[in-house]
Amino acid sequence: MAPSFDHLRDEDLDEDDFDVDEVDISDIREKYEVQLEQGYDAFVVVDGLPEVTEEQKPKLVKFLLKKLNTVGKTREDLIFMPMGEDGKSLRFAFVEYSDPAEAAAACRQLDLVPLDKKHILRVNKLTDVDRYGREGRIDDEYTPPQIEEFQEKEHLRSFMADPSGRGRDQFVMFRGESVGVFWNNEKDQPENIVDRQHWTETFVQWSPLGTYLTSVHAQGVQLWGGPSWTRQRRFAHPFVNLVAFSPNEKYLVTWSNRPIAIPEEGHPALSVEDHGKNYVIWDIETSKPLRSFAQLDTPAAAEGEAPKKAPKFPWPAFKWSADDKYVARLNPGQSISVYELPRMNLLDKTAIKIEGVVDFDWAPATVQRDGVKNYEQLFCFWTPEIGSNPARVGLMSIPSKQVVRSLNLFSVSDAKLHWQSEGAYLCVKVDRHSKSKKSQATTLEIFRVKEKGVPVEVVDTIKDTVINFAWEPKGDRFVIITTTEPVGATAVPPKTSVAFFCPEKAKGNAVGNFKHLRTLEKKNSNAIYWSPKGRFVVVATVANTQSSDLDFYDLDFEGEKPESDKDLTANLQLMNTADHYGVTDVEWDPSGRFVATWASAWKHSMENGYHLYDFKGEQLREEAIEKFKQWQWRPRPATLLSKEEQKAIRRNLREYSRIFEQEDAERISSADVAVVEARRRLLEEWFAWREAITQEVAEEREIYGLPADPAAELIKAKDAEHAGDAEEQVIEEIMEEVLEETEEIVQ
């Protein structure tokens, strides 16, 4: 608490009361004296208040108190509102909180918050007002600020306008110490846009909509963009290790395994309240920190129990709602904390207590449930079996915190949550064990989120353990990979099976029950990569020293459909099979036309480089690059076309295809013509140079009195010499005569 009249200093005392020299209280004063600078840390100055009279003042204080108590604890008697000589308030107030942390929270969360329609609060620490406003810091005379001349900023979405008009996508490559951004030229050499040495220290990362390229350094994170690739934002989080964006690029989370240490001279972006924290949530637009968090401690083992193993590090530790309005954090086994943005205050001031909670995940899109008109964001969570209580999967609505659907499960070893990209379905992959716990199988619990009552469909025909699951983006089909052998690290990876599922046909717009389409056995596959546009999928074997297969499938093959699949909404066809030795990563481009695979030097040093395929699996390009580390396609923002416009394009796709094919043919032929023209131009340049040199030499010979054609002069001189010697010409003839010829036979 701040000092009051109960804590008077020595100079405030009346010397007549007692003789100071008689009693030495220096040790007591040193121990108990309140330091004024520390005490004032609990005070804030609230500015921007309406002007009120003495009669209106109590009403305003009560109204203001409601706002102030959302971030801490204060009372009416701890709010001092100065009044002017005219009997009206001076439009600001001093407020005392119970501790400095609450005062700091008030500055962070209440500054620029509207009090009403006409007034916006400005909240600052009292110590900051003193620090920046003391004598000598502010000029006595007003000096108008210098307004910088307007400079037009670069368009951060300029990459959407391909100068070639071909709708190419960009990608970034990190190889050696160099980072470069390129246009994809299919079979031809990629067109370099920018290439810089030591652009990052650890890795690069695109923002979710492709606006920024992130570089990571010991001093913090930098965002780059625009046609000239200038630095757009900077976030000074020392020794940052990982970065995560909110879906709409409004906010950024940075994490460092080293707690933040604020030096005595201060930090350019962080404050004393951030000292010792590991996570910082930033506002990208302002580059300012909103709030920082410390690493969660591992729960200690109970007395008599074996020490608990350190849990696997969760990333992202903070998960975002689809519209960036909420961010949530899991406190394993206890609760989920949901924060409102941009104020970063805890929703309803309390965490959502869920005993035993293991994991949760937000719906990737704002879902409109049947019969629900209110705004909501959904997230799902699951809890294991605790004592006699079954495991449970729940679907919760935010901000109401209402559980709109729950499901009890038994004999559960583990569960994984898989949302479909539009939030229409939630698949809970449940690994169940037998009573003896010696065998394990998987069931899929599929929540139909958009249907009334959120019905749950169970796929229990899977006899093996599912090791991978993936929904079709913007679709209702999925692929799984299963194995009969126990999951874990083995010298030789187990054989796997790849199974395809799709709904059966139903009347109208309804989606039928999910049915098994096909299973491919005796595979080595362990990863599934759907095209972002759906329909096409790559089933791959990655990070495997024995196999590196890439299988390209089409689930809407236009050929003849087998009789057994007539009632299903898919027609499966293997289009191609490729092999990329040592492949570690696979990624589709945002248009769904190309697939990049690469072998990263971060994982091994054998045949590092990349391959580029089209969606059919035809290899377009292969390049081996020493110390190749990373490839990332640049994401695109969502289309601006309406659903009707997109449907019209699909209907007329054949017409557009003919136009594009003609343009491609013209481009290829024009490329050939360009080569011929370049050669002709070089030949003409050589002829022109030769003629110029010949003329220059002729002029020099004329100046020095030499013949214009020395060769002709030499021939003429030689002919004249021969003409003078013609009278004394001697002709010699050589004749050969045979004198004797003998033939001898040797036996």
Supply the key terms:
Alpha-Beta Plaits, disordered N terminus, extended, 8 helices, Methylamine Dehydrogenase, Chain H, alpha+beta
Q: What is this structure, in a nutshell?
A:
With 747 residues, this protein is an alpha+beta fold. Strand 12 and strand 13 (251-255) form a beta hairpin.
Give a description of the structure.
A hairpin with a 3-residue loop joins strand 23 and strand 24. The chain is built from 8 helices and 41 strands. Among the domains are: 38-133, Alpha-Beta Plaits (2-Layer Sandwich), CATH 3.30.70; 314-441, Methylamine Dehydrogenase, Chain H; 656-710. It is α+β, with helices and mostly antiparallel strands and 747 residues long. The strands form 10 sheets. Strands 16, 17, 18, 19 and 20 form a 5-stranded antiparallel sheet that branches. A 4-stranded antiparallel sheet has the order 2-3-1-4. It has a 4-stranded antiparallel sheet with strand order 7-6-5-41, with no helix packed on it. The longest helix has 51 residues, at 653-703. One of its GO terms (cellular component) is eukaryotic 48S preinitiation complex.
Set down the secondary structure blueprint.
Blueprint: H1 26-32, H2 36-39, E1 43-47, H3 57-68, E2 79-80, E3 92-96, H4 100-110, E4 122-125, H5 126-133, E5 170-175, E6 178-183, E7 191-197, E8 204-206, E9 213-217, E10 220-225, E11 230-235, E12 242-245, E13 251-255, E14 279-283, E15 288-293, E16 318-320, E17 326-331, E18 335-340, E19 345-346, E20 352-353, E21 359-362, E22 377-383, E23 391-398, E24 402-409, E25 412-419, E26 425-433, E27 440-448, E28 456-459, E29 465-471, E30 478-483, E31 496-503, E32 514-523, E33 527-530, E34 536-540, E35 549-554, E36 573-579, E37 585-588, E38 594-599, E39 609-614, E40 619-624, E41 628-633, H6 643-651, H7 653-703, H8 710-724
Antiparallel strand pairs: 1-3, 1-4, 2-3, 5-6, 5-41, 6-7, 8-9, 9-10, 10-11, 12-13, 13-14, 14-15, 16-17, 17-18, 18-19, 18-20, 21-22, 22-23, 23-24, 25-26, 26-27, 27-28, 29-30, 30-31, 31-32, 33-34, 34-35, 35-36, 37-38, 38-39, 39-40
Pfam families: eIF2A (PF08662)
GO molecular function: RNA binding; translation initiation factor activity; translation initiation factor binding
Protein name: Eukaryotic translation initiation factor 3 subunit B
